[in-house]
């Protein structure tokens, strides 16, 4: 029982607790803040599992960019009357069943293989080595991912433009 | 020596199940998108654990692409939610059914 093992279980508990709090909050700002805590915990786990560069990226992109984007959107949208938090019971019960069933079945499947129960040796991937590996072995995939991000930028801009245009035409029709 | 690989997989499965629950059950488009984020994050955690288990950087390289896909999905999804909100004034995924049940008074 080394210090790394204790740290792993403590952080795992933190992640599960904060994610469970996030998915059950009624206030969306609280949910996003709990999720930021969960992503910080995931970044610590990445560091523990030997990926310091990915830990930094997790904090910068997930907690820093994506969650702040969610916060901006939540503050932009004024919800007048919050409708029910969950769907009606005939849809909520299957959702709970599917999630629980997925968890139970995959846990049972994981328990089948005794090989996986040996502790892993700690290792660390140097960021420089990781960068060289990524750009030497997966250069085409990196290019495709950058094209995907460009397409997303243009797509999000177009969607926003179209929404504004329809909004304006509705206002002109009303006045 | 740290934890067994299966403990890590169980953790990421639990996170995935929580994200699945948020996506299926929350009656709010933003919370559904957050659930998809949680699921992608759980997958990334499993990939990093597999990279450590087999001592290869392949798994860590996949996490980079997961991050790119997550950023893409959030950008387009949030833009679509803003468009929907500007058109209908609501981000309720059950809006269509409510409108039908109310006899088209929406």
Strand content of chain A: under 5%
Unreliable spans of chain A? none
User: Percent of residues of chain B in beta strands?
Assistant: under 5%
Kindly name the structural category of chain A: mainly alpha
The best one-word shape of chain A is extended
Radius of gyration of chain B: 18 Å
Could you name the ranges of chain B where pLDDT drops below 50 across 5 or more consecutive residues? none
Total number of helices of chain A: 6
List the chains of the largest interface with their residue counts.
A-B, 96 and 71 residues
Helical residue percent band of chain B: over 70%
Q: Report how far apart the termini of chain B are.
A: 60 Å
Describe the structure.
The complex is a heterodimer of chains A (175) and B (106). By secondary structure, chain A is mostly helical. Helices cover 79% and strands 0% of the residues of chain A. Chain A has six helices and no strands. The longest helix of chain A is centred in the C-terminal third of the chain and has 36 residues, at 139-174. The mean pLDDT of chain A is 84. Chain B contains four helices and no strands. Chain B has helices at 5-25, 29-54, 58-88, 95-101. In chain B, helix 1 packs antiparallel against helix 2 and helix 2 runs antiparallel to helix 3.
SSE inventory with pairings:
The complex is a heterodimer of chains A (175) and B (106).
Chain A lengths: L2 H22 L3 H21 L3 H25 L12 H23 L15 H11 L1 H36 L1
Helix pairs in contact in A: 1-2, 2-3
Chain B lengths: L4 H21 L3 H26 L3 H31 L6 H7 L5
Helix pairs in contact in B: 1-2, 2-3
How would you sum up this structure in a few lines?
Chain A contains six helices and no strands. Chain A has 175 residues and is mostly helical.
């Amino acid at each position: 029982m080394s210090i790394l093992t204790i740290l792993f279980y403590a952080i795992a508990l933190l992640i599960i607790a904060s994610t469970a709090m996030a998915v059950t909050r009624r206030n969306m700002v609280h949910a996003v803040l709990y999720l930021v805590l969960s992503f910080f915990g995931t970044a610590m786990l990445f560091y523990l599992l030997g990926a310091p560069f990915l830990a930094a990226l997790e904090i910068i992109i997930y907690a820093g960019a994506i969650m702040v984007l969610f916060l901006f959107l939540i503050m932009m949208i004024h919800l007048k009357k919050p409708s029910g938090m969950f769907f009606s019971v005939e849809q909520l019960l299957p959702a709970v069943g599917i999630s629980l069933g997925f968890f139970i079945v995959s846990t049972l499947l994981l328990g089948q293989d005794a090989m996986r129960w040996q502790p892993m040796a700690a290792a660390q991937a140097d960021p420089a080595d990781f960068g060289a590996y990524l750009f030497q072995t997966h250069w085409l995939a990196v290019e495709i991912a950058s094209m995907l991000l460009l397409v997303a930028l243009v797509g999000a801009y177009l969607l926003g433009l179209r929404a504004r245009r329809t909004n304006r035409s509705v206002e002109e029709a009303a006045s | 020596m740290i934890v067994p690989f299966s403990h890590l997989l169980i953790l990421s499965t639990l996170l995935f199940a929580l994200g699945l629950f948020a996506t299926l059950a929350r009656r709010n488009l933003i919370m559904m998108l957050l659930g998809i984020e949680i699921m992608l994050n759980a997958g990334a955690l499993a990939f990093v654990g597999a990279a450590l288990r087999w001592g290869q950087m392949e798994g860590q390289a996949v996490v980079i692409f997961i991050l790119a896909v997550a950023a893409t999905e959030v950008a387009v999804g949030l833009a679509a939610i803003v468009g929907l909100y500007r058109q209908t004034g609501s981000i309720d995924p059950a809006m269509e059914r409510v409108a039908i049940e109310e006899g088209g008074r929406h």
